[in-house]
């Protein structure tokens, strides 16, 4: 792949100076934070509605089935339409579905909208692996381990910040208000990433036949 000569050691500074690496890190952090924020908050909201653990388990079960079925399809779709375009679409759908989930008043509606939210996050996460591979190739040299290390850091930051922030706000705001405010932030991130989109999405290197 084009970039630094093979064998040149990649550095954290060179990876973070690559726009596509930064774009992917921001995207993954936003997606992970969103789905992680919902996991404890939705359970608390279901309890406030008087629904027991069985309905909460069914909600997460439906989302898990949708994600398991959707991820292979999202991978194939990413090959056709491009990883970056699919990632932006997924983050946009997540921003639109989130306020609707916040205003749902029953377990059936919440299960459906949570499944939509989980599928939207899948639209981000599945193509992001391929996108990061192309971004790592642009860094050049021995950069794949470093780039995917940054990917895991981004995912970890989202998993850490999402539940903590969501739980803190849930104690002070209604679920509907929390969902609407989070969706506004998610929409702003989506718009900023769309504005800074690469002219052509990076293509991961292929192994020789």
**Contiguous runs where pLDDT drops below 50 for at least 5 residues:** none
Tell me, what's the shape? globular
N- and C-termini, Cα separation: 15 Å
How many H/I helical runs? 7
Structural class by helix and strand composition: mainly alpha
Radius of gyration, Cα only, in angstroms?
Answer: 18 Å
- The residue-averaged pLDDT reads 82
- In total, how many beta strands? 0
Secondary-structure element pattern, one letter each: HHHHHHH
Helix content: over 70%
Q: What percent strand?
A: under 5%
Largest sheet report: none
Defining key terms:
209 residues; 7 helices; 0% strand; mainly alpha
Element layout with pairings:
Blueprint: H1 12-16, H2 19-48, H3 53-81, H4 83-102, H5 107-139, H6 144-170, H7 175-195
Helix pairs in contact: 2-4, 2-5, 2-6, 2-7, 3-4, 3-5, 4-5, 4-7, 5-6
Write structural notes for this entry.
It is a single chain. The chain has about 210 residues and is an all-alpha fold. The protein has helices at about 10-15, 20-50, 55-80, 85-100, 105-140, 145-170, 175-195. It starts with 11 loop residues before the first helix and ends in a 14-residue tail after the last helix.
Brief digest:
The protein has 209 residues and is an all-alpha fold. The protein has helices at 12-16, 19-48, 53-81, 83-102, 107-139, 144-170, 175-195.
């Amino acid at each position: 792949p084009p970039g630094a000569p093979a064998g040149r050691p990649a550095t954290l500074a060179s990876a973070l100076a690559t726009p596509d690496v930064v774009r992917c890190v921001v995207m993954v952090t936003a997606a992970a934070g969103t789905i992680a924020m919902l996991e404890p908050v939705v359970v608390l909201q279901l309890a406030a509605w008087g629904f027991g653990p069985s309905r909460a388990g069914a909600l997460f079960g439906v989302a898990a089935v949708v994600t398991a079925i959707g991820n292979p399809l999202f991978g194939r779709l990413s090959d056709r339409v491009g990883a970056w375009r699919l990632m932006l679409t997924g983050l946009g759908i997540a921003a639109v579905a989130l306020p609707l989930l916040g205003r749902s008043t029953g377990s059936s509606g919440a299960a459906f909208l949570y499944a939509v939210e989980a599928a939207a996050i899948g639209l981000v996460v599945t193509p992001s692996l391929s996108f990061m591979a192309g971004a790592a190739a642009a860094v050049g040299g021995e950069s794949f381990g470093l780039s995917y290390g940054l990917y895991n850091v981004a995912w970890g930051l989202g998993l850490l910040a999402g539940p903590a922030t969501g739980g803190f706000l849930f104690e002070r705001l209604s679920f509907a208000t929390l969902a609407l405010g989070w969706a506004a932030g998610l929409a702003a991130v989506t718009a900023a990433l769309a504005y800074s989109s690469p002219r052509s999405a990076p293509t991961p290197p292929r192994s020789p036949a």
